[in-house]
Amino acid sequence: MVTANVAYVVIASVAQHPIRGHARRLIAECLRLGALDELTELRLAQWAHMLGFRGHFSTKSRRYSTTLGALRAAREEHQRQDAITTGRLPLFEEDTVLVVAEWQCAGRGMSVGDAVIAGALTSTSSSRPGGPHDF
Q1: Three-state DSSP string of 3-58
Q2: Number of domains into which the chain is organized
Q3: 34: left (phi over 0), alpha (psi -120 to 50) or beta
Q4: Which top-rank group of organisms is this from (predicted)?
Q5: Segments forming the whole domain that contains residue 32
Q6: What is the pTM of this model?
């Protein structure tokens, strides 16, 4: 059992770690509740790093069960539909292959402005060849 004094020290040390505020509060509450005699059988302090949940993150209940593959497929379909409805992805049939067959040279090397900035950052001359107009 974690005593109240030990729980206070551990809660204070949790504040030093890069944890988001919500998770930090859940961990602190697990530690606080774990110090109570009537809740010792829950072993909340021992499972505080898992936010009080004693099991694997993907453990499923008996009333509702799905697979991680089904969740992944649903998330992928949702993202695809969202991209189509917002115009970021054109609407094609499921088996359509989009082929981009035109390429255009945009130049090589850095632009004059990029060369000046790079030269200023690296303390080198910006008058090197290789800009977009140096073919």
Answers
A1: CHHHHHHHHHHHCCCCCCHHHHHHHHHHHHHHCCHHHHHHCCCCCHHHCCCCCCCC
A2: 1
A3: alpha
A4: Bacteria
A5: 4-50
A6: 0.35
